[in-house]
Amino acid sequence: MVEAVNGRHSIRRFLPMAVPRSTVEAILTAAARAPSGTNSQPWHVTVVAGEARERVSRAVLAAAEANERAEEYEYFPEPCPEPYLARRRAVGYKLYSLYGIERSDYPARKRAMLRNFEFFGAPVGLFFTMDRFLKLGSWLDVGMFMQNVMTLARAYGLETCPQQAWCEFGPTVHAALGIPDGQVLVSGMALGHADWSAPENGLVADREPLAGFARFEGL
Known about the structure:
Helix content is 39%, strand content 13%. The chain is an alpha+beta fold. It has one domain (2-72, 117-200): NADH Oxidase, CATH 3.40.109. α2 (21-31) crosses α6 (136-155) and α3 (50-65) runs antiparallel to α7.
């Protein structure tokens, strides 16, 4: 279990190997054991593969090229304060380096970003939603459910990449997949077999040491 968590990191290139529906169903069924406030279980999941995957990918790529960005919700404050800005930049620069992209090469950086909307080649995409009227506690619940999905996928030899980038084009995703307007799109996720030969899959983001985020009282 420790290795399943410690070994997980976001994969940005997948092999073109199919994932059986039965495997996705098994992962989601087990993931639904995640805790939630008063057992509310607020999560919904739209799973896409094949034509549905291509349809949402085409729609969001077109919206991105047309600069039709419409964020589903605000993820970071603007301007983003430290230390969060430095952490964002550090992981971004490491990724560009693995892609072989210079920091000043903005067209190449954009092309790399747009690969999000191809699920980085993964055959399966997942979109996590919940009812818009729910409050902050339900966001925590959906996050725990998503973490279960990412950890359990590894038990089946699969890897994932959580993709909040889809939420920057929320209305387009809603329209392409028929997701009700009464549900907020929390995140997307790519699911598949990792291509371990890809340099970008060697990226393991730094983590703050324990002393930097934990306090102990009476222990």
